[in-house]
């Protein structure tokens, strides 16, 4: 059995206004098909252990989850070591119906940005309205981070989980680090009550 | 800045999350067509100052194609609609006619 190696060896940086770290490897399976079909919804929900999210949503618990990627695509997340067997389980559950499942874990890099100012860091890099009243935990967004495609969701009020293509992992880490560098707080979003931030 | 709403997934974002796909509702002329028709299909495009129908792709998002009706001068977006159609929806046309009384829809896009 070969040892999985993430793009940046799970490097991290906590010197800025939010902590940035690579948190791979994560098992990721692209599941494409008719998202309204009960055979697909049942298979995905049962195997991922969470409900199929509404459009533009993500349901996750610990290291499992399902993210809504497009009108005909879901991303099923699981522990890295289980990705292979999860694909087999999905294919078996789908049976003779049409849907495709592919293990894409090694093609991606996963990051976490956390802290009271995490929203600001993300807002500097993507064309997404990250106002706390608009973008909330449980929502999922495919977009860009500076110049590369990426997707993210919030696992709680101050934590973003991000994934991007593995080939641009260094770029994404660097650009997140620059957006989070110390002294760069903008103060655009109101902090939640009781929160204080290292600006 | 141009702000578009993807008809496929409903996300509203500024234009850098999308990619423009050129004029909408072209009629394809393929093998066997006259040279003039083929040339027109390949190269001849409208470039109106005002109301225009375009194809766009939500390239950094859901990846789907959709249509947009907008004003090329003011960047006002009248609406987005499905890619799976040959013509803009009637209610969108009516809304544009309302806002731009001197605009008439070009017969060729009908
Ligand atoms: Zn979309």
From TrEMBL, chain A:
Gene3D superfamilies tied to this protein: Heterotetrameric sarcosine oxidase, Probable tRNA modification gtpase trme, domain 1
Taxonomy, superkingdom: Bacteria
Signal peptide (UniProt feature, chain positions): none
Pfam family, one: SoxG
SUPFAM superfamilies for the chain: Folate-binding domain (SSF103025)
High-level lineage: Bacteria, Pseudomonadati, Pseudomonadota, Alphaproteobacteria, Rhodobacterales
Protein name: Sarcosine oxidase subunit gamma
TrEMBL record, chain B:
Record-linked Pfam families: SoxD
GO terms of biological process kind: tetrahydrofolate metabolic process
Any one GO molecular function term: sarcosine oxidase activity
Top-rank lineage group of the source organism: Bacteria
Name recorded for this polypeptide: Sarcosine oxidase subunit delta
């Amino acid at each position: 059995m070969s040892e999985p190696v993430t793009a940046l060896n799970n490097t991290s940086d906590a010197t800025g206004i939010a902590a940035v770290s690579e948190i791979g490897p994560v098992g990721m399976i692209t599941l494409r098909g008719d998202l309204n079909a009960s055979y697909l919804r049942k298979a995905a929900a049962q195997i991922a252990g969470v409900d199929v999210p509404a459009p533009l949503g993500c349901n996750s618990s610990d290291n499992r989850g399902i993210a809504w990627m497009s009108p005909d695509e879901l991303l099923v997340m699981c522990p890295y070591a289980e990705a292979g067997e999860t694909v087999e389980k999905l294919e078996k559950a789908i049976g003779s119906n049409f849907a495709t499942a592919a293990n894409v874990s090694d093609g991606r890099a996963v990051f976490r940005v956390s802290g009271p100012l995490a929203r600001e860091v993300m807002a500097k890099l993507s064309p997404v309205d990250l106002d706390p009243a608009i973008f909330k935990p449980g929502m999922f967004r495919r977009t860009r981070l500076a110049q590369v495609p990426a997707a993210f969701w919030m696992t709680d009020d101050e934590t973003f989980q991000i994934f991007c293509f593995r080939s641009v992992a260094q770029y994404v880490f660097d650009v997140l680090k620059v957006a989070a560098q110390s002294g760069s707080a903008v103060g655009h979003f109101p902090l939640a009550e009781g929160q204080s931030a290292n600006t | 800045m141009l702000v578009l709403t993807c008809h496929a997934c409903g996300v509203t974002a500024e234009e850098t999350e999308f990619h423009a796909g050129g004029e909408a509702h072209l009629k394809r002329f393929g093998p066997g067509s006259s040279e003039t028709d083929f040339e027109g299909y390949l190269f001849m495009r409208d470039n109106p100052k005002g109301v225009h129908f375009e194809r766009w792709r939500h390239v950094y998002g859901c990846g789907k194609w959709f249509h947009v009706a907008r004003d090329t001068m003011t960047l006002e977006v009248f609406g987005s609609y499905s890619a799976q159609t040959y013509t803009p929806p009637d209610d969108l046309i009516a809304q544009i006619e309302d806002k731009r009384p001197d605009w008439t829809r070009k017969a060729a896009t009908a």
